[in-house]
Amino acid sequence: MYRRALLAAVLLFASSAAHAHTGVGATHGFAHGFLHPISGIDHVLVMVAVGLIAAHLGSRALWAVPLSFAAMMIVGGAAGMAGMVLPFVEIGIGLSVVILGAAVAFGLHLPTVAAMAMVGLFAIFHGHAHGAEIPESTSGFEYALGFVTATATLHACGIGLGLLLGRLGEAQGSRVSQVAGGAMALAGVAILAGFI
């Protein structure tokens, strides 16, 4: 189990910094939209963290927390496409990695509504970063559809990982979650400091 966790951490940190920020990378078609979120470590970490948080909370949070992220990401994306200015987008994205990583590390047991609000707030920044570069065309719609699909896939991976950790038992699953969440939070600090 520890080897798998280490391998997953190595693969996550081997990703490049996000190419989702305005003016970077191709922005047409479903394939580009799908690949965009998984090409940057900040987006991968946050979306997997959302799934881990949802799995930790269980019950209706399993669908409500990821759905809240996806819905607010679409809102942020629409605002970006419309040319609305959102200050501190990059800082918001970096802070999302730190805070959601810390939530995983400490096993925060928030009410589902509070978790939905927290991930929804950060989703606006992630969505805006992508929406600001989506072209207003059919290709842009396909790009957005690919982006949302990749987001849902990463959330599902986080939920699956969280449920698997839950089956390991309280002590082992909790230790792995602490290490993974701590690594996420540290990566967020590195992103904010400009090291990643």
Tag the structure with descriptive keywords:
196 residues, mainly alpha
Cα distance spanning the termini: 27 Å
How many distinct domains?
1
Number of helical segments with 4 or more residues: 8
Name the helix and strand elements from N-terminus to C-terminus, one letter apiece: HHHHHHHH
Structural class: mainly alpha
Helix content estimate: over 70%
Largest sheet: none
Question: Care to describe what's here?
Answer:
It is a single chain. The chain has eight helices and no strands. α3 (41-57) packs across α7. It has one domain (29-193). It is an all-alpha fold and 196 residues long.
Write the layout of secondary structure elements.
Elements: H1 2-14, H2 29-38, H3 41-57, H4 61-81, H5 89-106, H6 112-131, H7 138-167, H8 170-193
Helix pairs in contact: 1-8, 2-7, 3-4, 3-5, 3-6, 3-7, 3-8, 4-6, 4-7, 5-6, 5-8, 7-8
Give a brief rundown of this model:
The protein has helices at residues 2-14, 29-38, 41-57, 61-81, 89-106, 112-131, 138-167, 170-193. With 196 residues, the chain is an all-alpha fold.
